[in-house]
Amino acid sequence: MYKPSYGYFIILIFLALGVTACSLSDINTYNNGKTATAKAKQESSSYYPEKGTNKAKNVVSADPKPLQDEDFTISYRSHKIDRNTDIKELIHKWGYSEGYDSFNRGYISGNGTYRRWNLSYPNYEDSEIRFVVLSKIEFEGEELVDGESYLVAVSLENPKFKTKRGLKIGDTLGKVLQLYGKPSTVTNGSLLYSKNGLHLRIQWDTKTEKVDNIFIEYNMEKSVKQQRSADYVEEDAQPDPDLEPYTIQREQSFTTTLNGWGDVKFISTLKDEDTNDLIHAKFFLEVNSDKNVENKILYEFPEFYGNKGRMIDRIKAVSFKDLNQDGRTDIVIIADYITGVNAHGIETLPVAGIYFQKKDNTYTTLPELDKSINQTGHNRTLQNVIQYVSKQRINVQ
């Protein structure tokens, strides 16, 4: 008899937010027309790299019809799957499939109130299609059971299944753009198409430029809101980049020594901003200790210049250097931000920003200097930035 403990649910909630973190960054479409979006620019020949320019332009020059709710439906075993699909009806028809119990009843995560789990067919060992479900936890005597349940999303994992417009695993990125046109949101390896709270997320292999997963979200926002609880992060708690929605960029996070701080960890992260749907860079100083420390985060840096109206793809470089010869350690950041997408993947441009250390050891930015660095093109390498700034007269109090 399956009797998981509340502690088990609480611990595994982090897994849920790992799974749904993609929804935190991909859930919504761009709403702010003033920001530079990562949407595909279909008619600008300068948008495409020289290699394959004409081919890429032709691929996306088609004008697919606007998305309809029907575009987010699929058919499985002659059964129409949409946001209103009755999960218990599917189970009644097809059962739980082989491997349900041995794969911990399809368990993904939980928080003592809800559990997120997979219903996989034809089995859990070699899944062709997965239904992601959120169920309210109830008791029958002393046994935990699934109460009210609904479909969160569907993952197509075999070429035998196609979307309403005919896209399948193994198709090219060019075909995605041909069938669906401009995406709502772009990240490296993922395109998102959205309408009326429905989301079609298409992931591709950046090496082969072919689709390797099709993920349709029906009730993702609702499930994330319900599953979040006080035992995840207290409302007023100091954020920890080890937790979502912060994703640590470990290759650009370092142990260093800074004036007034001593030995610390400089943590680079990418954070999904719920307010404008752009992936932003965030930076922290953290205690340099392997021991459990009550307040791990010592300092959160001001807003990164590169976040302004941009979607960051990656943190490219970090340098610790006294740029204005005041005896304090300044920090140079270079990131890549997304400018668009074509048949060969995403395109990016660099953006740089500098944190100057003040007399009280905290950090500040000089927006006009950051603007000048980027407008003059001195943002491509750390050496470019450092040489340019060394010629300026900078006084930070």
Structure explained in plain terms:
The protein is of the alpha+beta class and 397 residues long. Helices cover 18% and strands 35% of the residues. The protein is built from seven helices and 19 strands. It has helices spanning 6-26, 53-60, 87-94, 173-180, 220-227, 367-375, 382-390, and strands at residues 74-76, 79-81, 107-110, 114-121, 129-140, 143-156, 185-187, 190-195, 198-205, 210-217, 246-248, 254-258, 262-272, 279-287, 297-300, 312-321, 330-342, 345-357, 363-364. Strands 3-4-5-6-10-9-8-7 form an eight-stranded antiparallel β-sheet, sandwiched between helices. Strands 11, 12, 13, 14 and 15 form a five-stranded antiparallel β-sheet that branches. It has a four-stranded antiparallel β-sheet with strand order 16-17-18-19. The model is unreliable at 1-61 and 229-237 (pLDDT under 50).
What would you call the structural class? Answer: alpha+beta
The dominant shape is globular
Mean pLDDT: 79
- Please give the count of helices: 7
- Give the assembly state of these chains: single chain
The helix/strand series, from N terminus to C terminus, equals: HHEEHEEEEHEEEEHEEEEEEEEEHH
Q: Could you describe the largest sheet, including whether it forms a barrel?
A: 8 strands, antiparallel
Number of strands: 19
Strand content: 35-45%
Which strand order spans the largest sheet, edge to edge or round the barrel? 3-4-5-6-10-9-8-7
Poorly predicted ranges: 1-61, 229-237
